[in-house]
Specification:
CATH class of the largest domain: Alpha Beta
Shape: elongated
Distance between the termini: 42 Å
Radius of gyration: 28 Å
CATH topology of the largest domain: Dodecin subunit-like
Number of helices: 3
Largest sheet: 4 strands, antiparallel
Helix content: 25-40%
């Protein structure tokens, strides 16, 4: 390995002398490239530091009302895509439905399906 095209002998010896955590940091720097910070040989001490900033996404919540009776399943809410997702999740969990109908009443959306039965979940996740 020391005679590889990726390592010269000095670099390989340096890498071999590092403890496991420092080896991981060294490899991370190689994979990230452009050495965001330079390793100075001391554990957890870097010449430069950096901070990763994440943009916070605003949580959007919509109420979905689901009601069952012996023959039908009704989903009511304001977002048809969300209602379709909820119904899809219910189907993935074993709900059998047929004859999906959609109606609108102002800002409200009603999705009504015939309830056929239940079965084992399609997805185990």
């Amino acid at each position: 390995m020391a005679n590889s095209e990726y390592w010269d002998k000095g670099e390989f010896n340096f890498f071999s002398s590092l403890d496991d955590v420092d080896k991981l940091m060294y490899l991370y720097d190689l994979m990230v490239g452009d050495f965001v910070h330079e390793y100075n040989g001391e554990t957890n001490v870097f010449d430069d530091s950096f901070e990763i900033e994440f943009e916070e996404e605003e949580s959007i919540r919509h109420q979905v009302i689901v009601s069952f009776d012996k023959d039908s399943v009704d989903l009511r809410g304001t977002d048809i895509e969300l209602l379709d997702k909820v119904l899809g999740d219910m189907v993935m969990n074993g709900l059998l439905v047929s004859n999906k109908r959609v109606s609108f009443d102002g800002d409200d959306v009603l999705v009504r399906c015939n309830f056929v039965g239940e079965t084992n979940p399609i997805s185990l996740n």
